[in-house]
Design a protein that fits this description.
Elements lengths: L12 H15 L4 H11 L3 H4 L3 H6 L6 H11 L5 H9 L9 H8 L6 E3 L2 H11 L2 E5 L2 E5 L1 H7 L6 H5 L10 H14 L13 H23 L5 E7 L5 E6 L2 H14 L5 H10 L4 E8 L11 H15 L13
Antiparallel strand pairs: 1-3, 2-3, 4-5, 4-6
Helix pairs in contact: 1-2, 1-5, 1-15, 5-6
């Protein structure tokens, strides 16, 4: 995850917040070069623009989160944080699409390419084609078969007009037309009349609804652990580091991808095939403790925790499978 350089790719609002947190962390670092790089970035703001680098460093105790957010906004091509936030929150247009609901309808029959950052997803789209969509705080690239499975026409000319990229479309009007078509595929639960249910369905529905409610309540009460994971190759010492809201589930997913030959991380798959499954370990490095603050959003803390482990293990180049700045 890049944090110290301007990127041409639009990133999610959450990732922008994480970058601001990491900028503040770098500014307070005991590493002089890191602190200087962070101070240099602050000079894009009017209040710091005319100051020598040493003076910015001398005033680092006065720098607040709002300043870091403003820096990220400037680096993303917006004059203010408010402007960036408005652009990101309005990116989905008037018609928002519930991709989670759509994916639930087709189950696991389609193997999509999943990414934690938009930049990675966009790179995969350019290299291998497909259709790019957001999903919660992640992104996935699917093939035409998934669109067909949910009832959309992958040959619709609006896909080409928007660049097959839902997050950063070339043509916003084309995405809006497709959003309306998606909306017709996901009717609200209240739109299904009770009279359309068969006698058997009617007799089973209350118990089914009760069971689903119990499962949802149980999940809320005992959610899967969030944390940072590592996949290590014992043969060469290389490591992959990442974070997930369901850390064990992500490790299971990576193991499945490697076993089935999916090349989402080509270098990792290459070593998996070269050394064999027995030479790899799948570890949970750190677990994020649930916040006791009501309504707290742990995603930013998870990103910061991941950044700390990336800084500690430095799994880049010959040392690992992460892409620096990716």
């Amino acid at each position: 995850m890049g944090t110290d350089a301007t990127t041409a790719e639009p990133v999610s609002l959450q990732e922008c917040k994480v970058r601001a947190s990491l900028l503040l962390k770098a500014l307070g670092s005991s590493d002089a070069s890191r602190a200087a790089s962070a101070a240099e970035r602050l000079r894009v703001l009017p209040g710091f623009a005319g100051l020598p680098l040493g003076e910015v460093l001398a005033r680092k105790e006065t720098v607040r989160r709002k300043h870091a957010l403003a820096v990220i906004a400037r680096e993303q091509g917006h004059a203010t944080w408010a402007a960036l936030k408005e652009a990101r929150e309005g990116a989905a247009g008037p018609h928002r699409v519930d991709f989670e609901h759509l994916l639930a309808r087709v189950g696991a029959a389609h193997l999509n390419r999943w990414f934690t950052s938009y930049a990675e997803a966009a790179a995969s789209l350019r290299a291998h084609g497909g259709f790019l969509f957001p999903f919660r705080e992640q992104f996935f690239v699917c093939e035409a078969s998934l669109l067909e499975a949910v009832g959309m026409d992958p040959a619709d000319e609006d896909w080409a007009r928007m660049g097959r990229d839902w997050v950063s479309p070339l043509d916003g009007d084309a995405r809006e037309r497709l959003a309306r078509k998606f909306a017709r595929l996901t009717p609200s639960p209240s739109s299904t009349p009770r009279s359309s249910m068969s006698a058997d369905e009617s007799s089973q529905a209350p118990g089914s609804r009760s069971r689903r409610s119990d499962l949802k309540r149980s999940y809320r009460e005992t959610p899967p652990p969030m944390g940072v994971y590592a996949v290590r190759c014992r043969a060469n010492g290389k490591v992959l580091v990442g974070a997930s809201a369901n850390v064990q589930g992500m490790l299971n997913r990576i193991r499945f991808e490697l076993t089935t030959g999916m090349d989402r991380i080509p270098a990792l798959l290459e070593d998996w095939n070269r050394y064999g499954a027995d030479q790899f370990t799948f570890e949970v490095l750190d677990v994020l403790k649930p916040s006791e603050e009501p309504g707290a959003d742990p995603k930013e803390d998870l990103k910061v925790l991941e950044a700390l482990w990336l800084d500690r293990l430095k799994p880049f180049g010959e040392a690992g499978y992460n892409v620096q700045g990716g």
